[in-house]
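yo, Cytochrome bc1 complex Rieske iron-sulfur subunit is done. seq:
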Amino acid sequence: MCGGPGCVCRISRRRLIGAAGAAGAAALGASACGSSGGGPEPYDALRGTVVAQTDDIPVGGGSVVIDGKLVVTQPQEGDFKAFSAVCTHAGCTIQEVERNIHCLCHGSEFDIATGDVRHGPANQPLEQLPITVDGTDIVLDEKDSGEGRG
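structure:
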């Protein structure tokens, strides 16, 4: 047994390579699972741009806009909201907005005013995105105002 000063521990090449591989895989997995906010957000390219016109968003409903990237709703006259069009259940794109926001992949429904789940299988709300209404233009804000989720 070894343990004193000047002792040289012997480890097989196979065990050393296995340990190094496991450590590398753990580091790679940790970096893939967590986001420290270092990379661009999915909507960064749209920030500051017009994403819809107020006349195109029905009162009590909404529309999927920007090639299926966003859902813009008008729960009450003059009150506009924007949400990610990515369903929080399985990542499908929202296809339909009537009284609720509908994901037709698995039947999840979300509230048009809050993005909260009204009917599963989704159990997380849609990400709310900050917008500004400028005349008839609905503009995705440059920076999050803190009211969004995500």
